[in-house]
Design goal:
Length: about 290
């Protein structure tokens, strides 16, 4: 129905959403572990093109309930641009329930609280936010372009604007040497913010960026094996005590052990599953079936 500028990415939970490319690429595009948008230069697509795509989809699928604004950080578009898109969506899809997008820490530096409130009121209800690691040191080594304080500030401002925030953490990002710092820093960050959703991914480096990742890590990087990743997952789940219950998932296709529940309520059950996997009583997803 739509002609996309590929590659096209979306969160797993947006599988039934209409994907609308408001921007192309990622305005930061320098995280050393991420190859998603390396082939694209960031740009905001012409408003007229996006609005006419909405009209095309509305004719073919008028009952759309969910829309995901792509690519890497649609929130990086100017507020008035976003508002025009959101208002067009609301006009053309009367049953629309949710619009979502990825968000970067820098987006919050460039938006006022009033901007966030306006885009929320116009329908942008859910932001996917890559924490990756809460460790200041790991954030530097992966050139995340943010500090824990900036990350926390972004999440708090999104939540204050009544947006839901779904955050991701990348298991294995500190390698074997910095595993504890990676997870403990992440626990410390997560426990300071009222996230709605928290998901884990497992590190998978595309060959095209492997050398850059190793170079920027500034020391030999020893990848985690499955046992190390499960121990990271265990440490993370055991340590999370956020200010409000958080829906936890490890259901991204990269994970060796798909899990789900609400933390802290389901902590013991999830830990028991991880322990069973560590003990070999629960099979892991074979590596050939994992996708990064
Ligand atoms: S992880 Fe996110 S912010 Fe970093 S380069 Fe990839 S898309 Fe951009």
């Amino acid at each position: 129905m739509l002609l996309y500028d590929e590659p096209l990415w979306r969160p797993p939970s947006e599988g039934n959403s209409i994907i609308l490319q408001v921007t192309l690429g990622c305005s930061f595009n320098r995280c050393s572990f991420c190859s998603m948008y390396r082939t694209k230069r960031f740009s905001v697509r012409p408003l007229a093109d996006v609005l006419s795509e909405i009209e095309v989809v509305a004719v073919a699928a008028p009952h759309v309930r969910r829309v995901f604004l792509a690519d890497g950080d649609a929130l990086g578009a100017e507020t008035d641009h976003l508002l025009a898109v959101l208002e067009h969506l609301a006009t053309h899809f009367p049953q629309l329930q949710r619009v979502s997008s990825y968000a970067l820490p820098v987006n919050f530096l460039n938006k006022t609280d009033a901007d966030l409130g306006r885009v929320r009121a116009a329908g942008l209800k859910l932001l996917y936010y890559g924490i990756e690691s809460g460790s200041r040191d790991i954030q530097r080594r992966i050139t995340k372009g943010a500090t824990p304080e900036v990350m926390i500030e972004g999440i708090r401002r999104a939540r204050a604007a009544d947006m839901k925030v779904s955050a991701t953490v990348v298991l294995g990002l500190g390698g074997q040497r910095r595993s504890e710092d990676h997870i403990d820093g992440t626990i410390d960050l997560v426990n300071q913010v009222p996230l709605n959703f928290l998901s884990t991914l497992q590190l998978g480096l595309d060959p095209s960026i492997r050398d850059e990742f190793h170079h920027k890590f500034r020391e030999p990087f020893i990848p985690q094996d499955d046992r190390g990743l499960l121990l990271e997952l265990r440490r993370l789940v055991a340590g999370i005590s956020p200010p409000r219950p958080v829906i936890f998932r490890s259901n991204h296709a990269s994970n060796a052990l798909p899990l789900g529940g609400t933390l802290p309520k389901d902590r013991d059950r999830i830990l028991a599953m991880i322990d069973a996997a560590l003990g070999g009583e629960v099979p892991l997803v074979p590596p050939r079936f994992r996708a990064y």
